[in-house]
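step 3/5: co-fold with fe (iii) ion
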Amino acid sequence: MTAHLVTGIGELVTHDPRFGGPLRDAALVAQDGVVVWVGPSGEEPAADARTDLGGAAVVPGFVDSHTHLVFAGDRAAEFEARMSGLPYTGGGIATTVAATRAASDDDLRRRLAALVAEARALGTTTVEVKSGYGLDVDTEQRLLRLAREVTTETTFLGAHVVPPGTDRAEYLALVTGPMLAACAPLARWADVFCEPASPIAFDGDEAREVLEAAARAGLGLRVHGNQLGHGPGAQLAVELGAASVDHCTYLTDDDVSALAGSGTVATLLPGVEFSTRSPYPDARRLLDAGVEVALASDCNPGTCFSTSMPLMIALAVREMRMTVTEALRAATLGGARALRRDDVGHLRLGARADLAVLDAPTHRHLAYRPGVPIARGLRL
Ligand code: NIG
Ligand code: FE
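step 4/5: write tokens
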């Protein structure tokens, strides 16, 4: 039993309603990785170990609830072509699938570890990782096994796209049958790319089939929806009790009302709009309707190759008119809700002592200092 005291916290954001906002000049004690005391500097109890942060701001470690971090290959040329005017269609996913299938476990593990370390260095302390670049039983299973080595938040995304040259109905039967059976023991969640506008993604009926099969296999549900155009993703997610619908770029009033008051979080991924030069989701409309909003990176080789949650916060504030407080909440507590976790995303008593330590006097600098690596993750 080791008690670790952290002092010299210039500003501490806990999301604890008891405090009614950030604390100034605070200290925190963690016992075996769990927050057991938070309060003003000078009133802290004795501890075995002590770290002084010299006035840094501390916020809950970021919860990145949506990533595709296990893959091989590179799509910088696709990005460059897009910046010269080509639209994003999802067609490049096949390039990553080919490279991923050909990669060894060691190569994939090395790449994954490097990306997780990069995210941690930028303040992320909880990360969800999806499969979806295997699209055959063996590779999907391999990707989830590797993902499980770095996180408990693993997501089976066999229904990412229909692989080129494969019959849709046959692929759907594979995903909901043998692939799901092989992958379910390695995953906490299942996800589907529900996008009727895309010929390679799944329409509402197909997505429902995937999600219902996954629920029967005991998995929690998540949906990629409403990214490229209007569609049934958001309402399907609500109807089936999914934890989150992610992207939410194109929503109708009915979608927003369905999300409001539901248990489904709207996860916004502004790095995708940034990197595909697309219109940003209307975050204000969701927040003003009372929808629980999360921010995540969607880090993947196609639509957003960034693990930086501070960048997502800066984009949310600059491009989606979220306040800094809303954006920080969405990147921490919102992400935790999107993963149905109550032990992360905040620093109330009993939470995991997962911190993002900022080389800055206040959390506002997360948006005010875009592109500057001021945050680092610290798990006590
Ligand atoms: O979340 N939209 C579908 N899947 C990913 C992109 C995958 C890729 O292009 O490699 C996304 O944006
Ligand atoms: Fe994604």
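step 5/5: annotate
The radius of gyration is 20 Å.
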